[in-house]
């Protein structure tokens, strides 16, 4: 009987590409693509985005999908990818728009 190490038996966590686009008066990011774990939430991405955009906790940050609605901050990227991912070359890409002022509705 062969022994299996933990690294061989544990599946790699699923990764999802997030493509970011500025709207309104939001600054343009140099790096517009991020790779996140499927289990990460939108709230964790907002923390990263705030650092990348040099926003304080008092500055507003709005995220949108399909330029129509703001997803809940407790949504995981696994759920967002299942419902809204754009398939490109076999990879799941979630496209998000960000703004520092309300852009829709």
UniProtKB/TrEMBL annotation:
The keyword Repeat does not apply. Belongs to the ATG12 family. This is Ubiquitin-like protein ATG12. It comes from the Eukaryota. Keywords: Autophagy, Isopeptide bond, Ubl conjugation pathway. Transmembrane segments: none annotated. GO terms for cellular component: Atg12-Atg5-Atg16 complex; autophagosome membrane; phagophore assembly site membrane. CDD domains: Ubl_ATG12 (cd01612). The keyword Magnesium does not apply. Ubiquitin-like protein involved in autophagic vesicle formation. GO terms for biological process: autophagosome assembly; autophagosome maturation; autophagy of mitochondrion; glycophagy; piecemeal microautophagy of the nucleus. One of its GO terms (molecular function) is Atg8-family ligase activity. Pfam families: APG12.
